[in-house]
Write a structure and sequence with these properties.
385 residues, alpha/beta, TIM Barrel, 42% helix, globular
């Protein structure tokens, strides 16, 4: 029996359980994957300041994100195809997040629908939106999110066009998987995954299903979706979204200080420093390396969150200490989901919580809201201080 003590342990179980196409989908970036790798490696350049003989009792990780109480400054990021890693994956992840007191963000490209997730949760979750050319579809999604009592809308800005992801192209990634000889063999050697996926009827993009009247099958639905990403997306569209939504708005995909200033002007409630997990512009900087510049540019005028490369509680703590109000985990919780379902997601959050808590204590601090850059060594990190 495997003793799970880290996110890496969950990743190993994930790899053993899932077919190759889904392993590659999660663990890959675009082109040479340099940004995907930098998202993780740049965290290692940041060091903690260890303090001793200080009161480490009565520690707390509780804080707020966009004014909402959270048990720790960590949220589950919006991830596409999540329901293909484990049956009803988004529903299970949302339940796990609720049990752990952290936000769950549902992707537009989810397998389980907004309504599916709402049916198994008692607290509001967040919904992530892609800007598509079909504005009627967007209005409908926003209304569905309102009807489901979603408490925040996250608009992703860095997917106007799709980055080239070599592994996905070579694997012929699709939902559900295409029944080619190689895919059938790859699924056949993963019987636990196959049996699990047979327990649900949810194998499509259920937020989109039924909207495209002329789509005769899932392949045609996927083609429609890929053509819908709006290359003309502008800051005027964000104002339109704000008016339609009327609630807390988070802008995801900010990687430049000038765009951060525009995010402030847009009136959004928060921005997410993100490079889409290294899956869009390869050769872009890591999220953590850009974070200090974004914080300086906005000067506390907007709440700043971050994602990309968070594989431990120490990574999360470093980002928060630099100034992020919260971080998002994607791959880290997907490993847990694919390995063990809802229990795996909870395990991933427990691991990150434990690592944050203990590391914070070793830094001589007992309240997450008091962690600052003074708790870090940044001189040799390459980050602006």
């Amino acid at each position: 029996m495997t003793i799970i003590t880290s996110i890496h342990d969950l990743q190993c179980l994930f790899k053993r359980r899932l077919p190759k196409m889904f392993n590659d989908y999660v663990d890959s970036g675009s082109w040479t994957e340099s940004t995907y790798r930098a998202n993780q490696s740049d965290f290692q350049k940041i060091k903690f300041r260890q303090r001793v003989a200080v009161d480490m009792s009565k520690r707390s990780l509780s804080t707020t994100m966009i004014g909402q109480d959270v048990s720790m400054p960590v949220a589950l990021a919006p991830t596409g195809l999540t329901g293909m890693f484990y049956a009803d994956g988004e529903m299970l992840a949302a339940k796990a997040a609720e049990a752990m007191g952290v936000p769950f963000t549902l992707s537009t490209m989810s397998v389980c629908s907004i309504e599916d997730v709402a049916s198994v949760t008692t607290k509001p979750f967040w919904f992530q939106l892609y800007m598509m050319k079909d504005r009627g579809f967007i209005e409908n999604l926003i209304q569905r999110a309102k009807d489901a009592n979603c408490s925040a809308l996250m608009l992703t800005l860095d997917l106007q066009i799709l980055g080239q992801r070599h592994k996905d192209l070579k694997n012929g990634l699709s939902v559900p998987p295409k029944m080619t000889a190689s895919q059938i063999w790859n699924m056949a050697i993963k019987p636990a995954w196959c049996i699990n996926m047979l327990t649900t009827k949810r194998h499509s993009f259920r937020n989109i299903e039924g909207h495209v009247k002329d789509a005769q099958n899932l392949s045609e639905l996927s083609v429609w979706t890929q053509k819908q990403f709006d290359e003309k997306l502008s800051w005027d569209d964000i104002e339109w979204i704000k008016q339609k939504w009327g609630g807390p708005l988070i802008l995801k995909g900010i990687l430049d200080s000038e765009d951060a200033k525009l995010a402030v002007k847009s009136g959004a409630d928060a921005l997410v420093v993100s490079n889409h997990g290294g899956r869009q512009l390869d050769g872009a900087r890591s999220s953590i390396s850009v974070l200090p510049e974004i914080l300086e540019a906005v000067d506390d005028q907007i709440e700043v969150h971050m994602d990309g490369g968070i594989r431990s509680g120490q990574d999360a703590l470093k980002a928060v200490s630099i100034g992020a109000k919260g971080v998002y985990i994607g791959r880290s919780y997907l490993y847990g989901l694919g390995a063990m379902g809802q229990k795996g997601v909870m395990k991933s959050l427990e691991i990150i919580r434990n690592e944050m808590d203990i590391s914070m204590a070793f830094c001589g601090e007992k309240n997450i809201n008091n962690m600052t850059r003074e708790h870090l060594y940044l001189k040799d990190s390459g980050l602006s201080t």
